[in-house]
Inverse folding.
């Protein structure tokens, strides 16, 4: 038996929720001293409204080691944990501490913590890869090796409608944000090899920028027929569907799916943001 634990920055598809072997451990969001648990009760519309009306930047807090330990206390022999990038959150370190504490009491299980070096649907795809390997009959060690290789070859891209959240979070200078907003310049952002954020390109207007993002995707993507491409969006289903059609016209992928962002991804993507991972 196996279990896959994903922090709530990684959205689970409806099929994954029904499977029973996937579970989310929630982060906590904060806006104007209001704490919001990023679980099934998360209300995206009210959170977006609260962020837009606030003068303060929203914050997030990673799950406690105990939260991970509680999920490790199960019947599964092989337990895998997927967290958002260690460069962006303390979730990975918290999960590692939870593992160490759990193994002090019970060292009979195989437990591995994966630093996704990504976020959102990047974590989702990693969780699906783990399940694929387990279902193929691989040993625990073989699964870890195969998934580490998968993470090394994964690429994350995103385009935001507004830079305001990044500015408030201190990831962009005020001047750069103001100039970008004034000229309607939007950056194509992506992950680095270690899981931090870099700017890959920029365009004027959302449509041009998304076109540039699709080019960035194809510049680093090979063997498309054997890869799943995932898109998450924050309150912009039509934009996500348009992006899906663009990618379908550029290459034949094994599968493409779309999912709406949960709390943590909503906080960073903001209203109208789209994330693509392959």
């Amino acid at each position: 038996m196996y279990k896959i634990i994903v922090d709530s920055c990684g959205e689970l598809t409806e099929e994954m929720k029904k499977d029973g072997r996937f579970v989310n451990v929630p982060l906590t969001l904060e806006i104007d001293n209001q704490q919001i648990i990023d679980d099934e009760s998360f209300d995206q519309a009210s959170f977006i409204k609260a962020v837009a009306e606030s003068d303060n930047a929203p914050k997030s807090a990673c799950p406690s080691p105990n939260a991970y330990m509680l999920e490790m206390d199960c019947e599964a022999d092989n337990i895998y944990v997927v967290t958002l990038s260690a460069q962006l959150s303390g979730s990975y370190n918290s999960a590692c501490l939870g593992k160490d504490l759990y193994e002090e009491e019970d060292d009979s299980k195989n437990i591995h913590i994966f630093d996704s070096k990504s976020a959102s649907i990047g974590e989702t795809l990693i969780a699906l890869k783990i399940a694929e390997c387990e279902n193929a009959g691989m040993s625990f060690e073989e699964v870890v090796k195969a998934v580490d290789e998968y993470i090394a070859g994964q690429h994350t891209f995103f385009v935001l409608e507004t830079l305001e959240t990044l500015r408030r979070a201190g990831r962009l200078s005020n001047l750069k944000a103001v100039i970008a907003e004034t000229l309607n310049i939007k950056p194509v952002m992506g992950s680095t090899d270690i899981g931090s954020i870099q700017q890959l390109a920029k365009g004027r207007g959302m449509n041009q920028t998304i076109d540039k993002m699709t080019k960035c995707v194809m510049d680093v993507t090979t063997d498309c027929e054997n890869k799943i491409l995932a898109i998450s969006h924050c309150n912009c289903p039509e934009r996500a569907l348009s992006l899906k059609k663009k990618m379908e016209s550029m290459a034949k992928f094994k599968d493409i799916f779309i999912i709406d962002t949960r709390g943590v991804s909503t906080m960073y993507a903001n209203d109208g943001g789209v994330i693509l991972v392959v």
User: Anything to note?
Assistant: DSSP finds eleven helices and 13 strands in the chain. Residues 2-27+62-152 form a domain with the Rossmann fold fold (CATH 3.40.50.10440).
